[in-house]
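Support request from a user on the community tier.

User writes: "When I paste my structure tokens into the form, the page sometimes reloads and wipes my input. The last time it worked, I copied everything first. Here is what I submitted, just in case something in the input itself triggers the reload:"
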């Protein structure tokens, strides 16, 4: 789930995933391969010599976004006494993401491309 979360945050390249997650290369290689096998991510070449790939979410992977946001909000309610470590807001108007996955300011239904994350009080 951490790899998927990082992909939602815009991480695409192996070294960037490794820097973000602090996981061993062999473990990350296995996880990315499994996510690709399951159809949640796909490898896209971005360099020929040496051959290098980006890992991008597929439609199936993007469909996990509502579940990820629901888990994030659940964790904020139950395990963030200092406040949420991450605030998810609407790029369009800076309103906050609601539990209905809408913007609390303008009411628009939000998806992964419509939001931005910034540090919260519990960061």
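"...and here is what came back when it finally went through:"
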């Amino acid at each position: 789930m951490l790899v998927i979360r990082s992909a939602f945050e815009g991480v695409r390249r192996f070294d960037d995933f490794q820097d973000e997650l602090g996981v061993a290369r062999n473990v990350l290689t296995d996880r990315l391969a499994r996510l690709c096998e399951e159809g949640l991510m796909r490898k896209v070449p971005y360099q020929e010599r040496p051959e290098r790939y980006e890992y991008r979410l597929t439609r199936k992977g993007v469909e996990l976004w509502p579940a990820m946001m629901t888990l994030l909000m659940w964790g904020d309610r139950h395990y963030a006494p200092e406040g949420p470590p991450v605030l998810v807001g609407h790029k369009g108007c800076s309103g906050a993401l609601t539990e209905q996955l809408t913007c609390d300011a303008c009411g628009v239904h939000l998806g992964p491309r419509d939001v931005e994350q910034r540090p919260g009080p519990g960061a």
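Agent notes: The reload is a front-end session timeout and is unrelated to the input. The radius of gyration is 16 Å. The first strand starts at residue 41 and ends at 47. Escalated to web team.
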